[in-house]
Inverse folding.
């Protein structure tokens, strides 16, 4: 166990590299492995915070870049910080804008000091440096704040990856300094450093070394959900996760499907975020233990069964597949709301199953179920 | 009191023409005056049935034309009827498609036997006759089914209004026959006839006479929310409502704003439906006792107050105007969901105030509050 101010990380069980743990924050504890729904602009699309809580959410992710643009981090601070602003009193993690340096690269210029991005709101230039990002994240007031990183555009271009990874390390140095100057963990925020290194095992290992040279409350693996195939992703996670300190939370950024989560848990990862359940929910896709269902499929026209027998979500306890299909076909907003809630509940149930399997020492026995859920099984066709 | 099979209408208090009553249906009772949220395609946009119930909804309206096209009335019947299909166990009213004859008139051909409309789903021809509509509504299975009416395109063209109104009466004859043949109220459905007559007091009075010549469980006033001004609308309601039998529910179709509802209650109307609260909610507008608020207005940027002090809706009990404004500005789905719920709660609170004022015999004392709510008061600018 590591206790760093209000942040404690208690490993409760291990199974190989996998662990079941409890991560304490100033806004409550998270049982890991845990999935964080994505609330980019301080809202998990279509779902209220009290509904998130009922679905099993313990921690949410918000986006520094988007919130800095609108409504502005100072405005959020004025209104009492992100927890009060969005009405979520549990733990929050803010990413750093590093992902936008990657995703908006056509509109972004990176230099040694930082990056200049374009505002998606009004096209204005937005300057992000390690110091600026640490200030923005302090104003937002999340429990966990991510360091600014430089995610290389092409994970298999070695020169580019080496350059971006080295810059990530130099930026982390500056992030850590700014964070310590603001009080470190005593300031109520845990800084997580981000491992880069692209698709190269040796660069991943070097990055782990450079990042963990800073004594931080947690560490993340970045640059693994940027278009590479699943094999490459697993390899990058396997190269990094087990090398991270065993007594700190490990967060895999932007991943992924149930099987991705399972593989990463096996490699020792504790925390996840991804738009998969919410975005799929808005696109008529429902995750179930029998595979993913496309609710626009004609086979559900007369199907009086719930999305998933035994699921306790607001969609499954009240509505038939036939009705949900009708909502999808008619373009009704309630379709997106209900499928999003179902998918979040499914992801949280997956994580709870993984946690229980770690505690019981039977994680591998879960693989067949996860693979079945992952597939487009018979139910999905 | 009138008791017609499972349908009873009990007037509990009167104040002038206004009444407070209790309308019983096979799926429960409704305290009137009452507002029915519009669930065109078997969903009140963005709101679950259990949430509607918590907001104070007692009865909802669904649309026969849209549901007949998709998913089809036979499909709904197969799946157990509309209540089961949409998960709402309270009373439901289905309109008849008459409004679509009006609103889709460019695509509609009316003849003596019925009307041929175009499907908004696939452009196919859709035939509506009194007999067909009665079958569709029987398959859907609502508690209250509306007769097929012909709403004139121009309420001030006397020849056109006289023609459409006479046709409405002939169609009602056929609707009533089909309904009686299916068992009448013993079949579990109450048929409501619709008064037309446009902007002409004498034609309205004649229409009341023709429609009430049929002994039906309730009567509606149609053709008053079709673009005419408020004065004309009130006049048409005043010409019809007090002439309808005092011991049956009176339903004013498609109206309106809080002040419209108040005026109609004064004239003796009991039931209302309108898209106003839901559509405005999706367009950043919130109703309050201080007037309507446009949440995109910059004045709410730093406003930590709820939409309305003392409101018990999910938006007001959890979120600030500043946060709701942020959701509107960012185009977040949750804005529409929350503002819709607030507006429905507001409309139900308005109706509850009117009912209490009827019981207390102080309806006119409510006028100033309703007019204030109606306005774009200081709070809205």
């Amino acid at each position: 166990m590591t206790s760093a101010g209000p942040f404690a990380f208690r490993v409760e069980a291990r199974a190989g590299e996998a662990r079941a743990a409890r991560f304490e924050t100033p806004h409550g504890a998270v049982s890991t492995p845990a999935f964080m729904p994505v609330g980019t602009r301080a809202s998990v699309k279509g779902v209220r915070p009290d509904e998130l809580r009922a679905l099993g959410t313990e921690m949410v992710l918000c986006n520094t870049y988007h919130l800095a643009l609108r409504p502005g981090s100072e405005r959020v601070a004025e209104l009492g910080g992100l927890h009060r602003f969005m009405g979520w009193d549990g733990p929050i993690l803010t990413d750093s804008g590093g992902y936008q340096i990657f995703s908006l690269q056509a509109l972004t210029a990176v230099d040694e000091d930082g990056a200049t991005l374009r505002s998606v709101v009004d096209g204005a230039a937005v300057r992000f440096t390690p110091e600026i990002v640490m200030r923005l994240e302090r104003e937002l007031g999340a429990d966990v704040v991510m360091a600014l990183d430089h995610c290389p555009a092409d994970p298999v271009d070695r020169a580019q990856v080496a350059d971006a990874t080295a810059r990530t390390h130099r930026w982390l140095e500056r992030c850590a300094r700014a964070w310590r100057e603001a009080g470190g963990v005593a300031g109520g925020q845990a800084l997580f450093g981000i491992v880069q290194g692209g698709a190269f095992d040796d660069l991943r290992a070097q990055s782990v070394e450079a990042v963990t040279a800073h004594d931080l409350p947690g560490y993340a693996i970045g640059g693994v959900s940027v278009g590479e195939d699943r094999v490459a992703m697993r390899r990058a996670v396997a190269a990094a996760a087990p090398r991270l300190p065993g007594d700190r939370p490990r967060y895999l950024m932007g991943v992924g499907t149930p099987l991705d989560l399972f593989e990463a848990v096996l490699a020792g990862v504790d925390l996840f975020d991804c738009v998969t359940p919410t975005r799929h929910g808005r696109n008529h896709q429902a995750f179930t233990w029998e595979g993913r269902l496309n609710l626009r499929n004609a086979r559900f026209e007369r199907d009086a069964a719930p999305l998933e027998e035994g699921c306790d979500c607001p969609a499954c306890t009240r509505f038939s597949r036939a009705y949900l299909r009708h909502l999808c076909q008619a373009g009704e907003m309630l379709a997106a709301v209900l499928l999003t809630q179902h998918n979040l509940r499914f992801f949280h149930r997956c994580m709870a199953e993984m946690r229980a399997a770690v505690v019981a020492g039977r994680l591998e026995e879960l693989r067949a179920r996860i693979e079945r859920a992952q597939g487009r099984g018979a139910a999905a066709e």
User: Anything to note?
Assistant: The two ends of chain A are 47 Å apart (CA to CA). The mean pLDDT of chain A is 95. Residues 301 and 363 of chain A are 37 Å apart (CA to CA). The longest helix of chain A spans residues 333-360.
